[in-house]
Amino acid sequence: MRAVLESLDGGVMLIRLGDPSEKVVTFTPERLQSLREIIEKLKSKPPAGVVITGPSLEMFTVGADISLIQEVTDPKIGESLAKEGQAVFAEIERLPFKTVAAISGPCVGGGFELALACDFRLLSDSPSSTVGLPEVKLGIIPGFGGTVRLPKLIGIPKALDLILAGKTVRPKKALALGLVDEVIPSHALIERARSVAAGSLRLRRKSIGIKDSILSGMLKGVVRSSAKASVLKQTKGFYPAPLKALESVFAANYETEAKLLGEAIVTPESKALTHVFFLTELSKSLGKGAKKHLDNMSASVIGAGVMGAGIASILAASEIPVTLKDTAEAALTKARAQVRGFADSLTYLSPSERNVLVSRVNCTTQDPPIGVGIVIEAIVENMAVKKKVLSELASKLGDEAIIASNTSSLSISEMAKEIPNPARVIGMHFFNPVPKMPLVEIVMGEKTSDKTIALVAGLSVKLGKFPIVVKDVPGFLVNRILTPYLNEAAFLIQEGYKIEDIDKAATDFGLPMGPVRLLDEVGLDVASHVSEIMVKGYGSRMEAPALAAKLAATGALGKKSGVGFYDFSTKKPRRDLYSVLALPKEKQGSSDIQDRLILSLLNEAILCLDEGVAGAPGPEAAKQIDLGSVMGFGFPPFRGGILYWAQKTGIGKLLEKALELEKKYGARFKPKFKAERVFY
Ligand code: NAI
After folding, report:
1. What is the pLDDT of residue 206?
2. For ligand 1, what atom is nearest to the CA of residue 388?
3. Which residues contact 1 (CB under 8 A, 6 or more apart)?
4. What residue's CA is closest to ligand 1, atom 18?
5. How far is 588 from 677, CA to CA, in rounded Å?
């Protein structure tokens, strides 16, 4: 697809970056070439000014084509791709008339770098408008001039804040930061941009400010070292791209930027991050077909506990009206406060928009209205209670109303047994805290229909989540893979290893927290309940020392009670841990800990793949498992997901390790894979 040239009034020309039928615009070689041709034309016959815009109010440009990024394996090719983009944008910057970017919809990465090469940037107030440079999230750096132009525009400190974290911002913030010159209603965008390009309207540019000027000048050495320290603290050295971006910002020249882009684009971290990007795209496509059925959908959530209130909040944020039912008034009072707190955390909304969000949640002790589109159940984790509540409810609702359960461990097929039309019964397993956790496991019961799956996947995407579709097995996918890993932590504690050493082995691998800390977060009562379910479902292979249950019996439930394995008042391991657990004294050293933890995850992930828990065994199922591992329990994104990581590490090498662990620690490490295994 190509950029096209159109005429506006007053001798101003409009460059439209794509065809209105294009939902997503990327800088393919073809589009860059068309832009080059347009620039030549404009140079030969200069207009009064130029406006550059996207194909529609929902899209400006998202930058480079990510499949091209993924294919580059030679740094020289990466460098020359950057230079090509830089050259086109430099031509735009040098044009002898005013250039105005009229932005509506996403304008990120290379798209925003194009806007930075224009004289002015106007941004529409459309909800889909965002600007920023998220390149580091793909393990690369802005390579089309962004690391040079952005610091010039807004000063080094603010530019670093955006570039190093790969942030994108909405209109209000973009204006406050000086990324754009004006925010205006979508319908007035082009005409306003035309007036600026024609010179009939003058805009005052926000100045950088004294403090940022000093920090970008005299004190830039200090800014550089503190930014480097903060990157290293945040990324723990796992992500090379932010450091390269930092180097590029301080080099402040296009040559260096292109060279550093070339270096970044071939790193294994960049390849893993682009792999994860494609996994999220695949997930988003799951519910595509259901889009139109989701318009005007109403929802009801049953159970206003921490999960129910969270689910109601995100439904309301997606403009879906929701009734939130609980039998206890006290729960509803708490839920109202939770929804309010959630709305107030959305700082990009105005106070009145936040009030509207809150008003979409109707907290009630009454049953949902008969015509409701979907009911999401989040009451106590008890099969008998859930069955009773759902079958009573189903008999009162229309036959087509979808009935979803947020159960974290109970069988959907069993739950559906007494419900008329069980094809509409499904699991919709959100993670806690609902607004933050990106994954939803969609659990298929024996009778769940494809239509129900598509609708619930579509709804999950609408709610801003990434769905994966999994089989109705105990623990579903994520908790099942996690169980042997959490169990291994219990074996290690039992052997006397220090909990901080166990957790450090996991965080040194790149996991966001270690398994012992995770148990404390989940709650030791909940964890031991899940453990029982897993042993019941899978037998003795899921058995482990019942340390969480032992602590829970003393009232130490983890974070929620202030003490678990850790003491949350000191944020340190509790001092009397080994005596409370009646275990031998703590052991020094950490031999094999990391391998024992990660191979436990891997073995179970491969079993899930082979048993079809994430669909017919093959690359598609491997993708769902990788996404589940990254989004469900924070498997390091720079490693691309558990199966992708295993393949890149070398299956043969991992097999040897597993056999060694089997010899040392027993049958639970018996490898579930052969040396020649491939996942992708
Ligand atoms: P919770 O105990 O905080 O809330 C349950 C709510 O349901 C209570 O307010 C209770 O009054 C209400 N309730 C009980 N019977 C009811 C009925 N017949 N009609 C209407 N309301 C009723 O529980 P939480 O943690 O929110 O969990 C709810 C469900 O979500 C459970 O199935 C749980 O397994 C699942 N889940 C929980 C996660 C967590 O981390 N807490 C994570 C993922 C799923």
Report:
1. 76
2. 18
3. 18, 19, 22, 25, 28, 30, 31
4. 389
5. 36
Identify how many contiguous H helices and E strands the chain contains and give both numbers. Answer: 30, 21
- Region 57-82 average pLDDT: 95
**Beta carbon of 325 within 6 Å of any ligand 1 atom:** yes
DSSP-derived pairing of the beta strands 106-108 and 439-444: unpaired
Type of residue at 522: V
Buried/exposed 151-160: b ≥16 CB within 10 Å, e otherwise: bebbbbbbbb
Domains and CATH numbers, the chain: 4-266 (3.90.226.10), 297-471 (3.40.50.720), 478-612+614-669 (1.10.1040.50)
Cα(306) to ligand 1 centroid in Å equals: 7
Indicate whether residue 381 lines ligand 1 (CB < 6 A): yes
Q: Which strands sit side by side in the sheet containing 466-471, from one edge to the other?
A: 361-364, 322-325, 299-302, 374-377, 402-405, 425-430, 439-444, 466-471
pLDDT, mean over the chain: 95
What mean pLDDT is predicted for residues 471-492? 97
As given in the structure block, the two tokens for residue 66 are 């990510």
The residues carrying an active-site annotation are 441
Quote the ligand 1 centre to 383 CA distance (angstroms).
Answer: 12
C-alpha 344 to ligand 1 mean position (Å): 24
What tokens were used for 335? 């839920």
CA-nearest residue, atom 35 of ligand 1: 407
* Pocket of ligand 1 contains residue 307 by CB under 6 Å: yes
**Residue 590 burial (C-beta neighbours within 10 Å; 0-12, 13-18, 19+):** middle
The rounded Å distance from CA 312 to ligand 1 centre is 13
Enter the tokens of residue 83: 């230079």
Phi/psi of residue 366, nearest 5 degrees? -90, 160
* Sequence letter at residue 253: N
For ligand 1, the distance from its centroid to the CA atom of residue 355, given in whole angstroms, is 26
Question: Angle, nearest 10°, between helix axes 619-633 and 593-610?
Answer: 140
Q: What percent of the chain has pLDDT over 90?
A: 89
Atom of ligand 1 nearest to the CA of 379: 7
**Is any atom of ligand 1 closer than 6 Å to the C-beta of 326?**
yes
Ligand 1 atom nearest residue 407's Cα: 32
Instruction: Tally the C-alpha atoms within 13 A of residue 433's C-alpha that lie toward its C-beta.
Output: 6
Asked whether 378 lines ligand 1 (CB < 6 A), one says yes
Average pLDDT over residues 434-461: 97
Altogether, the residues listed in the chain come to a count of 680
Ligand 1 site, residue 389, Cβ cutoff 6 A: yes
